[in-house]
Amino acid sequence: MLMQSIGPVPFVDLSIQWDQIGAEVMPDLEKLFQASAFCLGPWAVAFEKQVAEYLGVKHAIAVSSGSAALHVATIAAGIKRGDKVLVPAHTFIGTIWGLIYEGAIPVFCDVEEATGNIDLTDAERRIEDGVKAIIPVHLYGQPVDVAGVLAFAERHELTVIEDCAQAIGARFQGRSLGTFGSMGCFSFYPGKNLGGAGEGGLVITNDDEKAKVLRSLREHGQGPQRYVHERIGYNYRMDGIQALVLGHKLKRLDTWTDQRRAIAARYAEALADTPLRLPAVVHGDHVHHLYVVRADDRDALKAFLEEHGVSTGLHYPMPLYKQPCLEGIASPSPEGYPVTEDWAGNGLSLPMFAGMTTPQQDRVIDAIHAYFEQVKP
Ligand SMILES: *Cc1c(COP(=O)(O)O)cnc(C)c1O
After folding, report:
1. Ligand 1, atom nearest to 199 Cα
2. Tell me, what's the pLDDT at 161?
3. Threshold 0.90, pTM exceeds
4. Does any ligand 1 atom lie closer than 6 A to the CB of residue 65?
5. Which of 87, 92, 123, 205 makes the best surface tag, with the fewest CB within 10 Å?
């Protein structure tokens, strides 16, 4: 049977990317080691230039992770202890670490039924005294309602920090995500659409003053003069090795994104006749970092797929307001978060990665059909 002949389908397979870049990365790595350019250095400078051009932004500041990017952006935005910040309740916790570190308070908002992105109608209800900023997350690779967020932020005089960790390469009306807010933050965690050979992150901005502050914050609060520390800083520098690898991968990102889009289109077509609720593409273009379907019997479906050699993921099973570490920090909400509960309880991420083959995808699709055959009354 075909299903058996291709082997189990992993949730993600990054070795395919290495197969494509390995031969050109290795001699470059040799040069990097010869130059001992380990922390920032010429490869980081080159990558910052390359990624700034790719995104169409004035300043790109390479840092050590997406969480570090969001942390320095929070500080550069002037968010202080006790300030409140609107964030979606349904996201990875990295979205809010920066504001937690600064003593700011996340105000969780419910998300849209169709996209899982922040619901501005709900955000409107949660506006209160002390709200200074909003962090919209372009979750799963789909732009938020960018025009809506900008109008909302202007109306309430809020700073916008975009969490683009899952959405590099996505555009809204032709412009890259991350260029709409005051700052945009990216993650190069290996599994992201553009991933390093370790941790990495990026902040982008068109604001010269903020760029200076961000560069200083990532490097011990140093100013133009070495060993003169103008502010409390951090060691958030990007490794040279990451910058080198990311530079090679960035050249292929659009090709890889096209592959993700083709896989998503094929899932949409092949799974349309199942009871699954499939991802909707609503705002702008979607780079399909994750392909998240919703199923009422999610856990049973997940177990069935696992048994049939298909690995899946959960993004994210526990909403932020339920996280044990946030007890006593986040504002309680009597209104609740019904849509977040739906995504958290019923969402299932199917295998999705650049280079996934048609037989691999067929195996996922066949296994899902087999599941629904089997549960038929
Ligand atoms: C990955 C991710 C982050 C954090 O990035 P790291 O590089 O893992 O620190 C933040 N927000 C979202 C939505 C993410 O997916």
Report:
1. 7
2. 98
3. yes
4. yes
5. 92
